[in-house]
Amino acid sequence: VPAGGEETEKSRRELNYDIYDKVILYHGMVLERKNVHILVDVIKNLPDVYKLLIVGQTDPVYEQKIRQAIL
Prior knowledge:
Blueprint: H1 5-14, E1 22-27, H2 36-44, E2 50-55, H3 60-70
Parallel strand pairs: 1-2
């Protein structure tokens, strides 16, 4: 069931997203073979209104690699 306007606004506030932000969602296992780090690199080259939300279980070593890519 799609989220209603009120629920969407609440979620955006909780995540500090502006109403004009374009949110790209990655949902799934966060593994190196799925190349999530490439998504991070791509997002850095897009305008600031694009945000990447990563949701899922990850390997701690790969998570560290992604965190380093964000910086």
